[in-house]
Amino acid sequence: MADSASDVFSALAHPTRRQILQDLKGGEMAAGEIAARFNTSGPTISRHLSVLRQAGLVTERRDANRIIYSLVGDRLALSVGDFLSTVCPEQIVLREVRKRSPRAATT
Q: Domain HTH arsR-type spans what residues (predicted)?
C-alpha cells in the first residue's frame, strides 16, 4: 500500500477511477462487474483498478477465478483530510469543534 498522499490524488485525477470508488461504496464487487459498468475495455479497467490498489484506496481478494474489490475504509478520508488541514487550517478548528460538541450536549 502506498504511503503518499500524492498517490491518492493521482489516483483521483481520472473520472473513471472516481466512478469506480463511488460504485464500490455500496460494497465489494468483482472486476467483471466493475468493467461491465463502463464502455471501456477490460484491460483499461484493470489498469484503473491497479492504480487505485497501488494508492491504497481499494483492496482485492481472489474468489476462485474472480477478483473481488472493496474500498479501504478511511484511506481516502484521511488523505484528503490531512491535505485540507495543511492548506485550510480552519478544517482543524472545525474538526475539534465537532469532536467536542457531542460531549457538550451531554453535560
A: 1-91
